[in-house]
Amino acid sequence: MENENRDILSYQLEVAKEFGLKEAEADFLSKIKDWKTREWYLICIIDGMPLEDLLILAKAAADIDKVKKARIENWSKKVSKTDRLNQTVLKLKDEVSDVCKESQEIKKVISENIEQAFKQQSKAQEDIIKSKEEMILMLEQKVKSLEEERGKERLYRNSVQVRDDASSQPSGIRGWFFNVRKAGDTGKFIRTYLKDEKYSVEQKEFLIECIEEGIQIKDIEVLASPNLSVSTMKRLKEMILKYNK
To answer: Is residue 105 part of a domain?
Structure first.
């Protein structure tokens, strides 16, 4: 009889291992003498009933009916939790649906505003481009006029020693073109920078400021790039001025 009980226990433990039986649970089952009662404890373990609850039943010497009852109560708790979870999921689903409807309405309003803003921005860009083209045309005309006067002013320019003091330089638009000529090839400056669409308006204004300050074309070639921000080009200009001192 004892051998038969051991064989049944071994068989039950083998079955339980297929369901991931833990060592503590196996030790618990091995202490249950009656194989029928042990069978129901095994079913409870497979159902996921906590070992602590089974130990309480075993300590109270619960019979099979009490073990079955405890198993049903455990299942009732699980089902109750599942129902609450389902209710929560359904509630969240309804909330998500409401949010989606609101999001679609908001998306529509935002889309309309973006389209309007895009049209306004496009018009502003067209105005800027037109203004920029007019500025370039004006500069080209003035440069052409000044180039015609270059021969007349050559003797004067050779006799003047250019100083770093800004007060010694001509003022106004004539002074600007004087700095352009002093810095290098005026046509090259306009072609390379003012007419290059890759440079933004802010970048071109900064490069014009460099010419006004007497920065040489060769130095402008070092710091100028459409891929650099104005702040970065300013830092490069400061480094060049410091190096040229």
So the answer is: no
Cβ neighbour number for residue 188 with a 10 Å cutoff: 12
Query: How far is 222 from 235, CA to CA, in rounded Å?
Result: 12
Spatial separation of the C-alpha atoms in residues 146 and 169, rounded to whole Å: 17
CA–CA distance, 60 with 69 (Å, rounded to integer): 14
Look up residue 240 and give its two tokens: 């060049």
Which residue range forms the structural domain that includes residue 49?
A: 2-62
Q: Is 75 helix (H, G, I), strand (E, B) or coil?
A: helix
Residue ending a domain, choose from 15, 39, 62: 62
Q: How far apart are CA 140 and CA 155, in angstroms?
A: 24
Phi, psi of 2 (to 5 degrees): -65, -40
pTM: 0.31
The 10s digit of each residue's pLDDT in 126-156 is 777 676 677 667 656 765 665 566 655 554 4
Residue 37 lies in a domain: yes
Q: What is the pLDDT of residue 171?
A: 47
The answer to whether position 48 is within a domain reads: yes
User: What total number of domains does the chain contain?
Assistant: 2
Instruction: Give the integer Cα–Cα distance in Å for 68 and 43.
Output: 9
pLDDT tens-digit series, residues 177-227: 545 554 456 677 888 888 889 999 999 999 999 988 888 888 898 889 999
